[in-house]
Each structure stands twice: as structure tokens, then as C-alpha cells.
Design goal:
This protein folds into two domains: 1-30, no CATH class; 32-100. 63% of the residues lie in helices and 0% in strands. It contains three helices and no strands. Helix 2 runs antiparallel to helix 3 (79-100). The longest helix has 32 residues, at 33-64. The chain is rod-shaped.
């Protein structure tokens, strides 16, 4: 491991980085909680909207064929739209999950 001498670094961020590196207890960083919460709320709203759209498609399918929702094979006319919607939901949920697991 290369030893970094604080005094050898230039004033400003280079030296501050060297100081922080010199002791594990100096490594304190902002969590940007406000911004994280804003993004999480935005993602929650988006997921809620997507969930509502999925419910609408399920309701239409159930009207056409009450048994269509009891199978994983979606052969309804809305099948392709639902698959695309589920892909979008999957992506958004993964992003949301990453943000909430910090």
C-alpha cells in the first residue's frame, strides 16, 4: 500500500482528500437525504401510476374472460401491452429497491 503524506498534497481538495484518507474516522459524507427522499417519492408516485394501469388492464381482461387472470400465459388482446408494462414496472421496482437498501 502506498503511504500518502498529507503535507505533500496541494492545499484544497487534494490535501483534504489526503487528510480524510489518513484516518477511517475522518470519512464522513453527506447522505443527501432530502434529494434521496424526493427521488423516492417520485418513484413511488410513478410505481403507483403503473400499478393502476396494470389493474385497469386486468379489469378489462377479467371482463372479457374471468379465467384469463388465473394463468401465467396471457393470451388476451392486451397481452403485449401488459408484458411491456410489467417490464417497466420491473425496472422501476429494481431502481426503487436499490435506493431503499442504502
Amino acid at each position: 500500500m502506498i503511504s500518502i503524506i498529507v503535507e505533500d498534497k496541494r492545499e484544497g481538495y487534494p490535501r483534504l482528500s489526503a487528510v480524510i484518507n489518513s484516518d477511517i474516522n475522518f470519512a464522513l459524507y453527506r447522505e443527501f437525504g432530502y434529494l434521496r427522499n424526493r427521488l423516492l417519492l417520485h418513484k413511488q408516485a410513478k410505481l403507483t401510476k403503473l400499478m393502476g394501469r396494470l389493474d385497469e388492464l386486468d379489469d378489462k381482461d377479467a371482463e372479457d374472460d374471468p379465467f384469463i387472470l388465473q394463468t401465467i400465459e396471457d393470451s388476451s388482446e392486451r397481452g403485449p401491452e401488459k408484458r411491456e408494462l410489467l417490464k417497466e414496472i420491473d425496472k422501476e421496482l429494481k431502481d426503487y429497491g436499490k435506493m431503499t437498501s442504502l
